[in-house]
Amino acid sequence: MQIQPSSRVLTLSTVAFTLLFAVWLMFGVLGVPIADEFHLDTVQLSWLGAIAILSGSIWRLPLGILTDRVGGRLLMTLLLLATAVPTFLVSRATSFTQLLVCAFFFGVAGNSFSTGIAWNAAWAPRDRQGFALGVFGAGNVGASVTKLIGPALIALVPAGASVGFIPGGWRFVPVLYAALLLVMAAALWFLAPAPDRHPGSGRPLRVLLAPLAEMRTWRFGLYYVVVFGAYVALSLWLPGYYRRVFGLSLGKAALLTALFIFPASLLRPVGGWLSDRFGARPVTYGVFIAMLLACVPLAAPGGALGFHVGLAQFVVFIEVIGIGMGLGKASVYKYIADYFPTEVGAAGGLVGTLGALGGFLLPLGFGYLAKSSARPESCFWIMGALILASLVWLHTVVSGLRRRDAVRMRVAAPEPIGGGLSAGA
User: Is the pTM of this model over 0.70?
Assistant: First the structure.
């Protein structure tokens, strides 16, 4: 049985994205032993993760547009190859500065999202775009890969127990990832359908960039900061949070972080299906309301709401936020596919850039605010404010649409018989 080309694109791009996402956020877990070895404080550790996120943000728009022009097969392969070298060099770093440089260059892995979104949008049937983009986006689960296998890999080859040129301890993980990136690049190049599709080929750049002039594109970008930028930030922040606040071991902290990542990633296809069936707007509404309700007790100082948020309650509320993020990431991109069906690369690239930049700024904000306020829950003050702002903007737009629809219906209604008065008047 021959696999459809669109299914091959979806499968290969999703596997590649999962691996690249694991590399992009690998400092979420590796940052803990790195901080111990290099004696880094909370702010320095925040910068280490944030630099990789910044690099994975700033190229999303041009790569999304370029994918529409030259195709995703070529660009995704190049991203895999370009990420492999700095990933390997992380294992050879001997200073904080070298780690920052490596983080900036392997952070290019994060830009694979806009490439994969545009590539799948070019191949997926229109009535299943929400689901297809949701399945691809579920590659966000790569953030949990290092959380799950990182501690075990570190223990498998202990520090100082090198095997040939392969170092031990936390340095073994980037070596393994570099090898997997090279294998994936070869698999994608030889198995992806060729010739590729590139709907933006021959179209003027000003046409491809037209969505950037529309306010709704920037509004979708704010939504994506909430459901993706905050997801990236929490993926990096939670392991250290669990250790500092609840005194957990690295293994347990990583496992609980992975439990947050799973629904925040794997429910994305469900969010795509719901958005295909019911529309992006009601799904996004429900997501913001649920996330805001879960964020309130997490943001409150201990005992402020009449009960203490212990570890069990914290995990439950974080899971609710993760579920909302998983559904919301798909509904935001369903908005894009609906409003900009032939400019997904540009619109999706800008929205992805804004969301990823949120993932860059939020960990820094978490770090500086926690240090200045001495309140570990202060990270949820920032999240709550972002969710509330997005919900208010969404409701304002929806209310305006409803008022305009009501006016149009009154104007289009026929004049009642009898001098404008109905019998019931």
Answer: yes
